[in-house]
Amino acid sequence: MIYLSVVIPCFNEENRISQTLSKITDYLKNRGFNYEIIVVDDGSTDKTISCLRDFENIVVLKNEKNIGKGYSVRRGVMEAKGEYILFSDADLSTPIEEVERLLEEIKENDIVIGSRASLESKILIRQPWWRERMGKIFNIFVRLFVIKGFKDTQCGFKLFKGGVAKRIFELGRINRFAFDVEILFLAKKFGYKIKEVGVCWRNSFASKVSPITSSLNMAFSLFLIRLNDLIGLYEKIIPKQMGNGK
Ligand code: UDP
Ligand code: MG
Fold first, then answer.
1. Residue/partner pairs of 136-140 with CB below 8 Å, 24 or more apart
2. Measured between alpha carbons, how far is 37 from 183 in angstroms, rounded to an integer?
3. How far is Cα 196 from Cα 105, in angstroms, rounded to an integer?
4. Using CA atoms, how far apart are residues 31 and 33, in angstroms rounded to an integer?
5. Quick check: CB of 208 below 6 Å from ligand 1?
6. 175: closest CA among 81, 100, 69?
7. I need a labelling partner for 86 at 20 to 30 A (CA). Which of 99, 115, 192, 232 fits?
């Protein structure tokens, strides 16, 4: 029985993924966890795939073309076999050691999400001012139009009970960066217990988030979440469908 599955979405990550996988592997082995690492290559055009060899307990999935972080995390989660499932960004902006605190909290909760905006968060390297601003505005939109109660929906470090993750992600349709909001929306809708925990964050400046395209796409995704809910798409399980939303 696998205790922890770690899902990592990767789009053109040849410069950071080897180091990330070494750190995660060292940590998980040291802790003596029964683990698997699921890397989802999101249509990378660089040498990401060849950096993935030589690691133990690794499952590699490859999207034919670039579809988005949301799609990739969803694909990884649906393949994961762990009792607990963590997804993490390829740059380890939140160090893997932080999973310790999330694992402690998951005993009392169904989902524990990392947060850069709570009192106990430790922001060691901040995002550029425009990204912080973008995050704050996005959070206001999230609160106004989709869900209340979260200070930071977008941190790329979230832990789920395995069965809970499957149930939620199976219904997910948002393929790009706003998928976290959809996941939290569904989790609340189904009455799961969610806890937001302040984590350590060291921003990595090589980002795939673009100020204009990503902002527009994320705003549109909020509208889609509401629409999908209104027309009943989040009511039924559609077997083996990965979703084709934005
Ligand atoms: N990512 C992905 N597909 C994409 C864009 C990003 O799988 O189309 C992955 C990326 O490789 C990383 C994660 O999503 O693991 C977060 O991306 P990034 O670090 O660029 O975002 P930021 O930290 O700036 O929010
Ligand atoms: Mg990053």
1. 138/215, 138/218, 138/219
2. 21
3. 10
4. 5
5. yes
6. 69
7. 232
Give the number of the atom of ligand 1 that is nearest the alpha carbon of residue 67: 8
**Separation of alpha carbons 51 and 37, rounded Å:** 14
Q: How far is ligand 2, taken at its centre, from the CA of residue 29, in Å?
A: 25
Report the alpha-carbon distance of residue 51 to residue 10 in Å, rounded: 11
Q: Which ligand is nearest to the CA of 14?
A: 1
Query: Is the beta carbon of 28 within 6 A of some atom in ligand 1?
Result: no
